Amino acid sequence: MLEPVNVTLESLNLMxxxxxLIPIIGAxxxxxxxxFKSDLHKSLYVMLSILFxxxxxxxxxNTSGVVAQNGTLMGVFNVMxxxxxxxxxxxxxxxxxMLFIPLALTSNSFHEFSYPEFFALFLFMISGFQFMVATDNxxxxxxxxxxxxxxxYTLIAMHxxxxxxxxxxxxxxxxxxxxxxxxxxxxxxxxxTGSVEINQIxxxxxxxxxxxxxxxxxxxxxxxxxxxxxxxxxxxxxWAPDVYEGASAPMAGFMSIVPKIAAFxxxxxIFEFLVHSGIVWxxxxxxxxxxxxxxxxxxxxxxxxxxxxxxxxxxxxHAGFVMAAILIGTTQANSALFLYWVLFTFTNLGSFSMLxxxxxxxxxxxxxxxxxxxxxxxxxxxxxxxxxxMALFMLSLAGIPPFALFWGKxxxxxxxxxxxxxxxxxxxxxxxxxxxxYYLKLIVYMFMKEPVxxxxxxxxxxxxxxxxxxxxxxxxxxxxxxxxxxxxLLEFITAFVYNSGY
Length: 502
What we know:
Number of helices: 22
Order of helices and strands: HHHEEHHHHHHHHHHHHHHHHHHH
Strand content: under 5%
Distance between the termini: 41 Å
Radius of gyration: 22 Å
Largest sheet: 2 strands, antiparallel
Number of strands: 2
């Protein structure tokens, strides 16, 4: 007869749930306020969202001190797993979200920001991402994945354009397929090991000497396909350009940053123990994913006629570039991944914010799309400040020193060389050179071409509200002065990654 187990609040360690519960409480509060008092100005919901995100950040900062003293925190029947990786990724998620939300104050012409449901769904989505990274339990990862995804599908559709509905349906379809792949992969891991906890799965597989290699291969392929969709790795990337084009520019920028860092952390937990186990075929598969994603996305970006689609393919290429860290699997590489994504957050969010400034309710006849290169032709003459800022972001994305992303690429390539992946490092450097061409193409349009006849010369000034200028200013500062903070930031990141055992 089984003896009863005494469960106390202390043993549950509910403190580990606090960072995820804060945005949920914020979302419910927004819905309750709207229930009793509708038609309130959206600025109230923006302020409430920022307030709860700031509270979330404060709790994470306090938790990081506890983790630094006591090591990994476990809670709620050991399904919560708060370590350095969980904290670092949550810091990025929350900070990027705090930069994104004020963009809702920039426009009355697009109505999705006027709905309280938008902000409630946004906070639910953030909580889902936090659950994903703060556990090593495959079931809870799935719950977080679906919570965030279902909210994101709706947020995209709320943009209320024809392409937005198309984008939401495509994203939903591909997301459902990815969820199916993930479920099958998790099922196979459970069948092989009798556990859904990643650390326990690693221990059982190692003890068995990876005997069931064929079944393990099938499980890993399912997982790679699932995360290939979420990270938009080639050939699972096909949804990304259309979804980015259909979403509003800020939402597209957000999608290129926050969902991917959550997926990177889960992929790191699942795949790195297999890479360290010397399973050669997995190393070869990851190597192919990284190289093909970087190279193919860059080639596709070269031939784009729309800046937003170009940035979509650019984001795919950056995801492939960063995926190399999981292949390399060293502490230096994992630290470089987080450093890269912090710097990428400022630069890419700034780039998409500039597209938001140039948004138009109705596309003029001379433009083939909302963000065609023709819109940016001769921008240095009509809006010199906007042209200079956009050029700054393009130079950073290209990895030109001393701007932000140069340091991310530098440390990522250095970690490849140190880890013994010299050929991969050369391929990464070559792809950075290829990417420079299509970033410079936009700069050529802005600085060396004449404005298109009949163009709206004031589109970049009429839409630049105070909140949008503030966010763009923060992105500019982060892009220009990143070199000052790179070493302290890298030391901070490395300490957390090392203490997590990665």
